[in-house]
Amino acid sequence: MGNAGINWTRTDFENCSIVRPRGELTEVTYRRLRDDLVKYAVDQPRAVIVAVDDLAIPADPLLTAFTSASMRIDTWPTVPLLLVAQSEPQRHRFRSSCVDRFLPVFTTVAAALDSLVEQPSRRRTSLSLARNPACGRRARRLVTETCERWSIPELRGDACLVATELVENSLIHANSHDDMEIRLELRRNLLTVGVSDSDPREAVLREPGPGADFSGGLHVVAEITRAWGCAPRWPQGKVVWATLRTKELRGGGR
User: Fold this and answer.
1) Mapping DSSP to helix (H, G, I), strand (E, B) and coil, where does residue 245 land?
2) Phi and psi at residue 204, to the nearest 5°
3) Cα-Cα end-to-end distance for the chain
4) DSSP states of 62-105
5) In sequence order, what DSSP letters do the residues of 2-37 get, joined into one string?
6) CATH homologous superfamily for 2-115?
7) What are 41-81's pLDDT values in tens digits?
8) Could you report the per-residue pLDDT of 9-28, keeping only the tens digit for each?
9) Averaged over 179-193, what is the pLDDT?
């Protein structure tokens, strides 16, 4: 993966993505670097470990690209983002700019790996959907069957509604002819429903037109879910996702 001014190398080790940006972080490359980090997290590895010694950062305010990426993945996909800087001056810059309040900074990749605690169990399933009038029905069938299999039948109705709205949003607004994909994930008593397509444009809430008395689509998703968002997907496209609380989480306050 790469962008103008920055190139990436990626290796996978112990279910973690170890990524190394090379080039210069500037006002021009700031957003793309942040979005590339989010894309690596959307693949849902155990962690994303960023080795930054080959990245030139001419101004300290640009370091917020890393904290911005961390905040974007904090709710979903909740993948740890860790920084590795072997250079003491580089580590000092991250500390003095308070980046290490949000992301841990380590001297070696091995130290970053050693810091990882056991992650909560995660259950996943997904289905590719052809872009046709039947895709909403297929998405609801997957949700229904999965909620029963995962013993969360109380979420079936809301999850089906979320899946329907996300699929229809992609059908209506995405400039794409490729199949979309619906994914379901259960982790820490939160069910995430996500729909991905190859259109890179971010999904946004659209205000109803004059005289309209009902807002559908993402307004419905925002109303009934704990959180929702849109994340870039590698190599292109996006994932629009939303989370629902299970009965155990609502009752137990965890």
Assistant:
1) strand
2) -135, 155
3) 38
4) GGHHHHHHHHHTTTTT---EEEE--SHHHHHHHHHTTGGGTS-E
5) EETTEEEEEEEETTEEEEEEEEE--TTTHHHHHHHH
6) STAS domain (3.30.750.24)
7) 999 999 999 999 999 999 999 999 999 999 999 989 999 99
8) 999 999 999 999 999 999 99
9) 95
Beta bridge partners of 2: 7
For residue 58, count other CB atoms closer than 10 A to its CB. 9
Q: Which helix (H) or strand (E) holds 230?
A: strand 227-232
Stated pTM of the model:
0.85
Q: d(Cα 49, Cα 141) in Å, to the nearest integer?
A: 37
pLDDT in tens, 226-241: 999 999 998 889 999 9
At residue 253 the predicted structure's pLDDT band, cuts being 50, 70 and 90, is very low
Cα–Cα separations (whole angstroms), residue 119 to 45, 47, 67, 116, 249: 11, 10, 21, 8, 18
pLDDT higher than threshold 70 for residue 203: yes
Asked if residues 60 and 93 have their Cβ atoms less than 8 Å apart, the reply is: yes
Indicate the average pLDDT of the chain: 91
Interacting residues of 198 by C-beta distance below 8 A, sequence separation 6+: 174, 176, 178, 236, 237
* Domain boundaries, given as residue ranges, for the chain: 2-115, 122-252
Superfamily of domain 122-252 in CATH is: Histidine kinase-like ATPase, C-terminal domain (3.30.565.10)
The token duo for 109 is 């990749």
What count of other Cβ atoms lies within 10 Å of the Cβ of residue 137?
12
CA distances from 176 to 13, 130, 172 (A): 34, 11, 10
